[in-house]
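A.,

Following up on our hallway conversation. Structure tokens first:
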């Protein structure tokens, strides 16, 4: 059996101008990055505003397990399947982060015959967007510390500083550090740290920006500290936002690539799904909707994280109306949620499938909260048995949801035709999409709404620090912003070990931080970290490059 990277290496990739032409884009609309990837100029994107929108399809998933769900693989395969059925289709998904690529997950461009290409470039440095975001973030950090060093004219309270450095790598040793050591010439000594680039507010706000002007305005609003009178200190106060916008001048322009079957794909931006809002850029999504009849996008992790934030943050801000939502699951993962040990997932166990259906049921309920009807995609594995598939079919019938067994990893778009037909049917129906909460609610009311509706919690508990921070956010006028809850992706609850459908739990809120540039309030639930660490055996140990430049081990 060929590996993902071997499949990608054997594929025949079109020149990117041919892919663009399928969307009605001309060569002069493109900024080439070689022959297989390009950015689409913002001038051309601006000219699309009068075009009607296509149908937006969200791909989400059940609660992730080590067994893997293949959400991106299904999203790519669904796009290929829709195109095979004669639909003008475009995919819009996130850029992978280098940290997870070298850490636990490996590459993140789909898999098998349902991949976006060029796989190695997209997983590595691509068009440099992440590097630009990292640089803009660290430029602001440098100007903040320089302001302190040069006499602190803004009267900044050093103990209130919340702006760390960023890097696109998993590095636990940099979570908490001390900077400015070595004497006065090296600045003011203070405690700081690093966040991973995908957790940076710069990443979040770039993905929520409408254009370059909106980007600079959002950068100006970023709060880095308070002064000694408890007033916010912003990037504008530090006179940094203009230079940051300069650094990001190309990063805001969306990237166009293709699947192995030639379906156009925008890949742009990559905020984490558990820490940030987990969606690709608004610019890329809206561009795709103006250029295609069907657009397949995805949210990070399960519906309790990426989908909820897609509905309540991205769709609200961009006035998007999704037409349908796909919930991805595997029989292997359902068995794990149903109590089967990881080592026994290859064994036939229909009872574990039935027990694990509670998790899938909750994620389908989450889609219905906002007025959409879910379509379930079961990502097929060779170990799935007829008995397990029959148990799944009966359980889905009892839940009242339509489902399809997809085999896009092995068969590409052909393996997703049944799913595509269900999606076309669902997208053609009238929906009443509505975000899950009103912005007029208080911050605590929004938190409790999301925890109750999407997680199934019985309530919310706040640390004293979190309560103070909520009160401070509302005092400063940020109480009407949407919330972005950062919690574990491994459970519907804030306890990563609670699989299935936890009941009788409360969500623990330990902190709150205003992301004024992004336009939401970040809420930290449980023990969630903004700088991941490497696992005992990182994916990086299996990677190598041949003398002719061929990469192995990235998948």
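Then the amino acids I'd put at each of the 555 positions:
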């Amino acid at each position: 059996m060929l590996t993902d990277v071997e499949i990608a290496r054997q594929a025949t990739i079109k020149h990117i101008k041919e892919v663009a032409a399928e969307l009605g884009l001309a060569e002069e609309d493109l900024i080439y990055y070689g022959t297989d990837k390009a950015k689409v100029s913002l001038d051309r994107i601006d000219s699309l505003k009068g075009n009607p929108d296509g149908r937006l399809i969200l791909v989400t998933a059940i609660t992730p397990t080590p067994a893997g769900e293949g959400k991106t693989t299904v999203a790519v395969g669904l796009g290929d399947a829709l195109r095979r059925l004669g639909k003008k289709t475009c995919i819009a998904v996130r850029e992978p982060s280098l940290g997870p690529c070298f850490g636990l997950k490996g590459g993140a461009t789909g898999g098998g015959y349902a991949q976006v290409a060029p796989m190695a470039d997209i997983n590595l440095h691509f068009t440099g967007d992440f590097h630009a975001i990292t640089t803009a973030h660290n430029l602001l950090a440098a100007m903040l510390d320089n302001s302190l060093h040069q006499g602190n004219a803004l009267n900044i309270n050093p103990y209130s500083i919340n702006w760390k450095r960023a890097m696109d790598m998993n590095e636990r040793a940099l979570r908490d550090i001390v900077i400015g050591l070595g004497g006065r010439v090296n600045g003011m000594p203070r405690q700081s740290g690093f966040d991973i680039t995908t957790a940076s507010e710069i990443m979040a706000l770039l993905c929520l920006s409408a254009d370059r002007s909106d980007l600079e305005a959002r950068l100006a609003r970023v709060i880095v500290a308070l002064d000694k009178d408890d007033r916010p200190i912003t990037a504008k106060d530090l006179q940094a936002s203009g230079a940051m916008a300069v650094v990001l001048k190309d990063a805001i322009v969306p990237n166009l690539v293709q699947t192995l079957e030639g379906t156009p794909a925008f890949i742009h931006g990559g905020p984490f799904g558990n820490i940030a809002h987990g969606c690709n850029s608004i610019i890329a999504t809206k561009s795709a909707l103006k250029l295609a009849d069907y657009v397949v996008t995805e949210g990070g992790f399960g519906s309790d994280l990426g989908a909820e934030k897609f509905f309540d943050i991205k769709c609200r801000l961009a006035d998007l109306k999704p037409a349908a939502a796909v919930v991805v699951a595997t029989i292997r993962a359902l068995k794990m949620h149903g109590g089967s040990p990881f080592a026994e997932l290859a064994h036939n166990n229909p009872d574990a499938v039935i027990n694990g259906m509670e998790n899938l049921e909750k994620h389908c309920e989450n889609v219905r909260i906002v007025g959409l009807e879910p379509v379930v995609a079961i990502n097929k594995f060779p170990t799935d048995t007829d008995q397990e598939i029959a148990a799944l079919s009966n359980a889905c019938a009892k839940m009242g949801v339509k489902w399809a067994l997809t085999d896009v990893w092995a068969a590409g778009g052909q393996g997703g035709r049944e799913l595509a037909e269900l999606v076309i049917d669902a997208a053609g129906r009238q929906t009443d999409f509505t975000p899950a909460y009103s912005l007029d609610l208080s911050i605590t009311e929004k938190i409790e709404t999301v925890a109750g509706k999407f997680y199934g919690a019985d309530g919310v508990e706040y640390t004293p620090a979190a309560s103070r921070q909520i009160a401070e956010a509302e005092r400063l006028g940020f109480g009407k912003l949407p919330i972005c809850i950062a919690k574990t992706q491994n459970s519907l609850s804030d306890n990563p070990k609670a699989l299935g459908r936890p009941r009788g739990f409360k969500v623990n809120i330990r902190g709150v931080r205003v992301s004024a540039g992004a336009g939401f309030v970040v809420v930290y639930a449980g023990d969630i970290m903004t700088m991941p660490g490497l696992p005992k055996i990182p994916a990086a140990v299996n990677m190598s490059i041949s003398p002719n430049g061929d990469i192995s081990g990235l998948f």
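Residues 176 and 193 are 4 Å apart (CA to CA). Curious whether your intuition agrees with the design.

B.
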